[in-house]
Write a structure and sequence with these properties.
The protein is 14% helix and 41% strand. The protein has 6 helices and 25 strands. The longest helix has 15 residues.
Length: 354
């Protein structure tokens, strides 16, 4: 089956590489774990699965090719050559709008762009009209220079952000929830942005269109490259359904290894909220009046003692989806220094310099 992928094999290979900048290949497993209905499910294994995608169908505009996907397990993939007239127009099974009236959706796909300039993976808008700068209404995502830009425009008010996806195959999940937009890449959460003023029903209106491989900017903007396993869910999938456990474990391990906080402090400081691979970090500290974590969970108020340095242990809990782990750090809060302490520190610094 195309949907079941060899996670263990990929993870064992990826764990031998540095996590930073090299994330684990992945494909959505959400359809096997959620009761949220599939609106569209295009596998692109053959011509029938180009024009038919579960409860959706696609009209081929221009031409396309079917080429080998990222591995034998995934069979064939849709290949578009970058010509603006070559794309898929997606509707529901009866030919009506697939997305109009939806308050939340999740769009999932595998993609490998075949150029570094802008390539639109998907685009949904109220109609087929060309977009106007400052008055845009659409949602969409495009690849450009190793990144994927996720956009959500409501009369020019934009929610947009960029996630690194590289120039090879990447799996992307974009959750358009009612009040937040989130992107996951290769099974790891990358970015989340609030968007209370950009409701999907306001953006897509009464008779929206959906394209794979094209956006209506100017004379049209296209996609060049491979697209596979294009799915749309009728609702917002949760992070636990989208984060891959093995990828999360590897990312958390790398974040724990890379993270540092000050070993010695004399003034207030701020604890990090995220690891460099995207894990979310929360903090606790041993009971001490000398270093107290504030109400925001990250700002530390330091109070120096007069008689001696005080060591406070901070424990960070790293979380990705259902995966958590901890790491503790010992931080010395320096005592208030008298003249003798200042001289002693100065002599110690000279010894180090020598």
């Amino acid at each position: 089956m195309k949907r079941k992928l060899l996670w263990k094999r990929w993870v064992s290979l990826a764990l031998g590489a540095a996590m930073v900048g090299t994330m684990i290949p992945a494909t959505a497993k959400a359809q096997e774990e959620t009761s949220v209905a599939l609106l569209a499910d295009f596998t692109f294994d053959d011509a029938a699965h180009v024009t038919g995608g579960g409860n959706a169908k696609a009209e081929v505009k221009g031409t396309y090719e079917l080429k080998d996907s990222k591995d034998a397990e995934n069979g064939q993939a849709l290949y578009l050559d970058g010509t603006v007239s070559n794309y898929l127009a997606v509707t529901d099974a009866d030919g009506g709008s697939l997305l109009t009236g939806k308050k939340a959706i999740t769009i999932s796909y595998d993609a490998k762009p075949d150029r570094t300039s802008t390539s639109w993976v998907f685009y949904a808008a109220p109609d087929t009209k060309t977009q106007t700068n400052g008055k845009e209404y659409y949602i969409g995502a495009f690849a450009n220079g190793g990144n994927t830009k996720v956009e959500r425009y409501n009369n020019g008010r934009t929610v947009g952000f960029t996630a690194s996806t590289g120039t090879d195959w990447a799996h992307v999940d974009i959750v358009y929830d009612e009040n937040v937009t989130t992107v996951y890449v290769n099974g790891l959460k990358k970015e989340s942005v609030e968007n209370g003023n950009a409701q999907l029903t306001d953006i897509l209106k009464d008779n929206s269109i959906l394209y794979i491989g094209r956006a209506n900017w100017g004379n049209g903007e296209s996609y060049k490259g491979w697209i596979d396993n294009f799915r749309i869910y009728d609702g917002a999938l949760a992070g636990e359904q989208l984060v891959d456990e093995d990828a999360a474990k590897a990312a958390i391990a790398a974040d724990k290894e890379a993270l540092t906080i000050p070993e010695t402090v004399t003034e207030d400081f701020t604890l990090p909220a995220k690891g460099q691979n995207g894990s979310e970090i929360t903090w606790t500290a041993t009971s001490s009046e000398n270093a107290v974590i504030g109400a925001d969970g990250y700002t530390v108020k330091v109070k120096r003692a007069d008689d001696a340095d005080v060591t406070v242990t901070f424990t960070g809990t790293f979380t990705m989806g259902k995966v958590t782990d901890t790491k503790s750090f010992a931080v010395a809060v320096r005592k208030n220094m008298d003249d003798a302490d200042v001289v002693a520190d100065a002599l110690k610094a000279l010894d180090i310099a020598d």
